Amino acid sequence: FTSLSLFSSAFSDELSHPSSILQYPSEAKKVVDEVDLHCTSWRLAAETNNLAPWSSIPAECADYVKDYVLGRGYVTDLERVSEEASVFDIDDGKDAWVFDIDETLLSNLPYYNDHGFGLELFDHSEFDKWVERGVAPAIAPSLKLYQRVIDLGYRVFLLTGRKESHRLVTVENLINAGFQNWDKLILRSPDEQHKMATLYKSEKRDEMVKEGYRIRGNSGDQWSDLLGSSMSQRSFKLANPMYYIP
Amino acid sequence: FTSLSLFSSAFSDELSHPSSILQYPSEAKKVVDEVDLHCTSWRLAAETNNLAPWSSIPAECADYVKDYVLGRGYVTDLERVSEEASVFDIDDGKDAWVFDIDETLLSNLPYYNDHGFGLELFDHSEFDKWVERGVAPAIAPSLKLYQRVIDLGYRVFLLTGRKESHRLVTVENLINAGFQNWDKLILRSPDEQHKMATLYKSEKRDEMVKEGYRIRGNSGDQWSDLLGSSMSQRSFKLANPMYYIP
């Protein structure tokens, strides 16, 4: 603790006093927008699953989230995850890929555009009405990945928290948005309605594994799509700063 | 597909043509810095574990990463994860918390400051020399969380990829940085040197669970600290845009 002791204590002080900036000889001072810094940090914590379940976005981040999802950030992030996911090769007919639907294959941005982008508390019956219109657009980079996965011969399982009674409208919406040739569309049966998503989705993946499938990829916008038992060889987390499903 | 068909196709076009900006009546155009957008997206993908193992940061993001780790972003993110982690109560003496060491309790920023913040390929022998100096400063928000966890009566396990031969210097470094009273410091034995970190750390967590501990929290800067078997009830991912350990 000789030459670095000054650095060490300066570093610690910085970490306890976030209002100042770490000073290095080479660093130019930078004006940082406070709200942007705060909301960027909130978004990283949300995306890395560090937050306790949250029910609506922070009010002070409403404009930040809106700018993100309507601007180039969200699109860029969606494209990147699709591109990263596409590097795999497959072996035989038992390789499977699991896709979530909402905010993974289909976008509900038109709905959230009318509901504060996650600022308003989730309204089941309003959202059901939107789902029942069956007009959610495809997330284009996901459609691209989906098509590649199908072309490579993967078995495709669509595993959604949507309820069984929305099967027909969901199929219609998916097909109109360009999705085809999946192996199985799994929706929540009435007795699964109150299971936590992580458990429900784990049980469904357990069944796939029991049937001999190797889950090679899993794409979802929620960590509850990806974590639990029978986890995929690789998981791909799509950005979603608008809502959290435990 | 009536009123929303235009939106739907516009949305899809947007996603395939990232050079334009999603247009909504309410959206003000915003000049976005290209490199910043690209590197912000890269960082999110890295932090959410969407990238295949990566060996060095993208060259074009060298300044971005440097500004992030030396500026207020990294500090803000470290503080947030520490604060989010501190909401737990405990039951009895079998509740445990697992901490990784490097970039979780101790910061190697002084080393990475001299080595391009992840731009240079990792140099084992150079890094060993740095570790052997034993002068890595504490990450202050982690020290705060650590202290709270100890005060609440958790058993604290330090689970690190550092090798057994670095035990003494690691203990000295930890104590000089303010960390005390852990229950067990687990380092890699020589025969564990070539295990993947995810497997090595899972096996060590398996042993804790076998001994009757409930792993309530796990703090680490790598997903290989957090994923695998015997996962913690809650995992806390600290930011680290500088290196990846599979």
Map the helices and strands.
The structure is a homodimer of 246-residue chains.
Chain A: H1 5-16, H2 34-47, H3 62-70, H4 72-85, E1 95-99, H5 109-113, H6 124-133, H7 140-151, E2 155-163, H8 167-176, E3 184-188, H9 197-210, E4 214-220, E5 234-237
Parallel strand pairs in A: 1-2, 1-4, 2-3, 4-5
Helix pairs in contact in A: 3-4, 4-7
Keywords (chains A, B): Glycoprotein, Signal, Storage protein
GO molecular function, one term (chains A, B): acid phosphatase activity
Function (chains A, B): May function as somatic storage protein during early seedling development.
Account of the 3D structure:
Two copies of one chain form a homodimer. With 246 residues, chain A is α/β, with parallel strands linked by helices. The first copy, chain A, has one domain (42-237): HAD superfamily/HAD-like (Rossmann fold), CATH 3.40.50. Chain A contains nine helices and five strands, in the order ααααβαααβαβαββ. Chain A has a five-stranded parallel β-sheet with strand order 3-2-1-4-5, sandwiched between helices. In chain A, helix 8 (167-176) links the parallel strand 2 and strand 3 (184-188). The longest helix of chain A is centred in the N-terminal third of the chain and has 14 residues, at 34-47. Chain A is globular and about 50 Å long. In chain A, 44% of the residues are buried. The model of chain A is unreliable at 1-32 (pLDDT under 50). At the A-B interface, helix 1, helix 2, helix 3, helix 4 and helix 5 of A face helix 1, helix 2, helix 3, helix 4 and helix 5 of B.
